[in-house]
Amino acid sequence: MRAVLGDRCIYLTENPPRTLRKAILYRDLKAAQLVCDFPDFLRGQEREDTLHIALTHYKRKWPKKSLSSISLLNSSRNAFLHKRRTSSTDPELLQLFVGILKKFLPSYYRAEQSLVIQVLDILQMMFRETENVPDRLKTLEISWELIGDLLNLIAHFPSLQNESSSSFTSSNSTSQEQDDLSPSRFIKMFIALLFELFLCAQQKFVENAGENVNVVWMVNQLEEIGCEELIQRIVDLTLHLTQPRRHGSCLSPAHVLQLYQQGYILLTLLDHSTKLTEVICSNYFTEFKYLVQRHVIEKKIPSHYPLSHTLLTLIDKVLDKILN
User: Fold this and answer.
1) Are 164 and 107 in contact (CB under 8 A)?
2) Residue 203: what are its φ and ψ, rounded to 5°?
3) Among residues 76, 106, 126, which one ends one of the domains?
4) In total, how many domains does the chain have?
5) Same domain, yes or no, for 182 and 259?
6) Is position 65 within any domain?
7) Residue 221 lies in a domain
8) pLDDT for res 91
9) Contacts of 16 (CB under 8 A, 6+ apart)
10) 11 and 90 part of one domain
11) 222 domain-assigned
12) Are the CB atoms for 80 and 66 separated by under 8 Å?
């Protein structure tokens, strides 16, 4: 049995491409979790190279349909799907979401904080590499002023967070609610959004799409705005994941992804800004020399993780920039 990812749902098939059975609509998914184990039904190298993903979804009964009927259904929706993908990166939506962030940051009420979390999730998806590349690059090019506002919010969020730190906890809220809206979750989401913006800007060089907005422009914007507090938060989160511990354990897939995002941002700043390079090297040289050790990190990252080799190479580059 194999899984086939479609535009709107997941199909199951035993004899591709002759038979496809609709299994799960994406809208029915409740949760997706990367399971840290080796699939029992595989053997050899394929077993080590395969990720085990557990999906939790609402049950739905599907009528049996042939491949031809599914193809016909998908063909009839092509126009709608194209419109949906284009609208997901509409500059007007970007303007709306940036306006919401500017209005509700710093946030003092839980409802506003939940809204900010949802907006940050949507913005990450708008610029994520799995979305329609030309539309994403077009949005980046024609919305450079909004991107500047977004970079300003990202750079200033640590100081805004300090102003409203007391609002992130409440005596009437449960521990689960506090975890969902904790200050660390907000800063991690802003870091993830900056990572997506950097990736999207880097893609412009590959696609030769415009010259107004690129990685150098973004880094220069952060340099002019002043992002020392943001750099401090990124370094603190990096050290938390990399420093040696007496009872060290492997990093989870989510932590590996976060570490890659943090390292990618640091390397981008080091590559494109002399001023920010001086800030990082002068303030955090000792920390990176003694607390970020490759052999320790290598033990924390299971070799079967897809990002393991790429992450170690990235860390080597960051250490080389800072220490040498």
Assistant:
1) yes
2) -65, -25
3) 76
4) 3
5) no
6) yes
7) no
8) 78
9) 2, 4
10) no
11) no
12) no
The mean pLDDT value for 219-232 works out to: 94
Contact (CB, 8 A) for 277 and 228? no
| pLDDT band at residue 90 using 50, 70 and 90 as cut-offs | low
Whether residues 117 and 173 fall in one domain: yes
Give how far the C-alpha of residue 100 lies from the chain's centroid of Cα atoms, to the nearest Å.
Answer: 20
Between 112 and 225, name the one with better pLDDT: 225
Give the model confidence (pLDDT) of 181-201 as tens digits. 677 888 999 999 999 999 888
Does residue 220 lie in a domain region? no
Over residues 22-70, the pLDDT tens digits come to 888 877 777 777 676 666 767 777 766 676 777 787 776 655 544 444 4
Measure the CA dihedral 270/129/127/241, to 10°. -50
Shared domain for 68 and 96, answered yes or no, is: no
- Residue that the structure tokens 């993830």 belong to: 192
pLDDT at 99 over 80: yes
φ, ψ for residue 208, nearest 5 deg: 55, 45
- State what percent of residues in the chain have pLDDT above 90: 34
- One domain for residues 135 and 156: yes
Same structural domain, 239 and 309: yes
What b-and-e string marks burial along 215-249, b requiring 16 or more CB atoms within 10 Å of the CB?
A: bebbbbbbbeeebebbbebbbebbeebbeeeeeee
Domain limits for position 246? 227-324
Pair (28, 126) in one structural domain: no
Contact (CB, 8 A) for 261 and 276: no
> Considering the entire predicted model, what is its pTM?
0.69
Continuous segment of H or E residues that includes residue 42: none
Q: Which of 154, 169, 203 lies at the terminal end of a domain, its last residue?
A: 203
Sort 59 into a burial class: Cβ within 10 Å, 0-12 / 13-18 / 19+. Answer: exposed
Residues in the chain: 324
How confident is the model at residue 231, as a pLDDT? 96
